[in-house]
Amino acid sequence: MKRFIPLLALFLAFSCAKEKQDVSRIEGKRINITDSIAANEEIEAYIQPFRERIQEDMQKVLSYAPKDMHKRDGELETTIGNLMADFVKLQSEPVYKKRTGKSIDICLLNHGGIRAPIAKGPITTQTAFNVMPFENSIVVAELTAENVHALVNYLAEAKRAHPIAGLTIKLNNDFTVHEALVNGKPIEDGKTYTVVTSDYLQHGGDRMYFLQDPVTLEVLDYKIRNAMIDYFKTVDTIPAKLDGRFVKL
Amino acid sequence: MMKRRDFIQHSLATSAFVTLGGLSLQSFTVSSAKKHITILHTNDVHSHIDPFGANHPRNPNQGGAARRATLVSKIRKENPNTLLLDAGDIFQGTPYFNYYGGELEFKLMSMMKYDLATIGNHDFDNGIDGLYKQLPNANFEFVSANYDFKNTVMDTHVKPYKIFVKDGIKIGIFGLGVKLEGLVDKRMYKETVYHDPIEFAQDMSRVLKEEEKCDLVICLSHIGYNYKKNPERPSDLILARKTKNIDLIIGGHTHTFLPKPTIEKNIDGESVLVNQVGAYGIYVGRIDFYFDDEKNVIANGKSIIV
After folding, report:
1. Residue of A nearest to B39 (CA)
2. Does pTM surpass 0.80?
3. ipTM of this complex
4. Which of A97, B236, B243, B249 is the most exposed place for a label (fewest CB within 10 A)?
């Protein structure tokens, strides 16, 4: 007990002497992390095995591109856009069919979602991460014929090479719709059509509002990038073609 | 309510001002400045562990966890009374996340001795179970006042706030999260309940200031800086204006690269700092709080230098 008394006295003296503190000055700024700051060696060494494992995978050759493919190599359709729309539809079809018993009629993606070109030569896992860095996931929205018309009009007005599959569109010289066919047939009133797209677009991305209130919606739990990697593994050489699916007369 | 005088200094060239600020510190604060707390912060790092490559079009050779670690330990050496905070979206954005599910992000943050983080919408990207699974790799805690995790695996693992005491200064930090519905798949966040962040912040700041008697109140927010097209949507600027007793709001979500902290007036007309450092670990935010005896502050006012 004796030992406590001086301690207590000290504590009391300290607390009494202590003035209430308040903020007198604030300074705020940001510090840029650049190569002028040396890397912490311990951290760097810790990252290294994780990095090596990823790099090994990223360099794995999955397929082959017969030529350079980029999103401006056509006017309303592009080789890379056609590839994207085709594999998203192809890879999603069995998953969707198994769950719902229905087939996929149309694929619609967005031109802005193609984030990198595919260079002629070997295609690696890294290619898939470059083209599709986002985690966008595949959904299938069942649309009324009215909304499919809205989709076609959107594409005509956008005048952009948004990737499509299962749908062919011919525009007049003034960008009005001349003909729009789903699987080779005109859009029938009263029918519904299944559209495979990304969750981003279905939620109103790129103002594709016709996707927002579908008759039915199926979330496939399948990322676009994973569909791409799965697809690349099944083909020796990927197609790089313009086939007239979206043209202006 | 005591009316304090705030002297706000804006600088045109930040680099020039840093020197000036250093000089003024030497010249007039040696006698009066008593205590010094440094807050370092990141947000929306999005699994950017490696620096951007030399040929990256926007941010060549910038960022990188190992460099951030060097900077943080240097500042900690200068001022041991430093807190390192993250305002969410730690996950998602590079293959490191796709491959390891956030393991490396949390481990590196632990090695850097992060003190606290809040939860961003992308931290649910592997589901709430995916986040829970990585918790053993985090030696730091998570705060969120407006997410109710009661009916999820995260129950008891996220507190509304945490209090740190550094050099006798009591610092209360609470977290805020963005509305999940429409942003994150329900199957990912499951039974996490979102509450209005402004309302919960009003209550939190009262608890921290009046009940817990904190000297500093900080909000770690992932609700977004400001929504120009949707000005009613809860944001850090609205939060600053509609609350009181918050000293600093550290934001995230909107990837807003603020060249310097914004100074807003709160409901009592007092200054609140709002800061956000963009994304990807390209910047670290640094806020220094210097303390003095209350009577001196009343007499001399408070200066804010940004």
Report:
1. A28
2. no
3. 0.91
4. A97
